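User: My advisor asked me to double-check a structure prediction for Pleiotropic drug resistance protein before group meeting. I don't want to rely on an old file, so could you generate it fresh from this sequence?
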Amino acid sequence: MSSFFSRSTKSASSSSSSLAKQAKENATSEIFTQPCSESSVKKKWDYDAAQLKQIEDLKAFTQTLVLPASDPYHPWELRFLNDPGTHPRYMRAAKWKFEDAKKRIQGTLEWRREYKPELIEPGDVGVEAETGKIILTGFDYDSRPILYMRPGRENTERSPRQIRHLIYHLERAIDFMPPGQEQVAIIVDYKSATSQSNPSIAVARQVLNILQNHYVERLGRGLVVNMPWWINAFFTGISPFLDPITRDKIRFNPKLTELVPVAQLDSEFGGDYEFDFQHAPYWKTITEFCHIATDGSRISDSGEKIYPPSGNGIKAALEGLHPVKGAVATGQVEKIDNVDKVIETPPSIANTPTDTPTPAQTPSTPAEDVVAAGASTKDATAPAPATGNEEVKSKSNGEILEGAGSGANGAAVSGSESGLEEGVKRMSLNRALTTAPGAPEGEAVFDHPPSEGELKEARQSLEGK
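Assistant: Sure, here is a fresh prediction for Pleiotropic drug resistance protein from the sequence you gave:
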């Protein structure tokens, strides 16, 4: 989380040159945009009747806050609110305290209106991406998209644009998420980092405020590797501002091959993925896969402005897998007709998922067409990933596509059903709320005062040696 804000006089071109010298044998600059067959969405969250009622009440509350249709940001605000996982995430983050959830989501709406995170222009933050200080590629065993963050590759002075670059990549990671997944894995690599390339506590608090308050329940894993001892002071400084649940998700120096399939883990961390970062192809792939227009909005292959629904990944949205009526979790989808027409229509109060879409009358949908989050440009012939929707079936008469099999995202309420009671009976929601602290992973790193050797290393880092 800390790799974006630093003081640096290193130019983007000089950093790129140094990276080029480290080219690896059999390296590729292509990125993974879908999980491999070893990954699947495993966890489920189950809500009782009272919790489902609170989720519906929170939806009703946010409907009173929505911008007027005349506001240019209106369709994007509705897109965020229509994500089936949005309101449940805020209720969980508030620990089911309804008034707290209201304050949190209202604060996020106000922040999004000012920041417009889904409309950040790629040209605005492209310079920040030139050295690969943030890279989005690959998925962990739970099908979470992986964001690699490397403070040692910082290339710009501290500015608001660095924060926009962070948010831009978080939004793209959400685009990468396959149906059933709504969290990201972050790997922070302190190799080659110095204390000067680490953010101040004030800046770190600003970043934490955005992540914890406006991307609630989005962090699945925070993995910190190659830590010099002086990082202890930084994490000690920000620890009081970390939500306990967030703190429990952070692990220091874990064995990454136990968390990420080796086929999609960067070889620097023990994987088989010989990734050689090249800015031009990386930026092109990210932009085109997520259908980002120059103004930050979304654009179809034919050049039309589109509004693909949020919550199940960009590829599923473009293939017509949209949230089912009454969905309260990502992965609860149905196949719709007239996909192009639907996604070209801006979201409005009249066409929210509670009222539409119309399901397609198709007898079956191939699993690989349903769950694939976009073929990797590295291996377009790889088998379809197991994301928890492996045995998807298309129902007739307006019912949903339903996951079955190991690790499946359970069934949702059918398009023809309504009412809380029916929902409780029929829904097997797609995650289990597991927030208890886990056992520490990896070796202890801050269990002694710094040795003379560590002090020497710190002095050399500060001097840029």
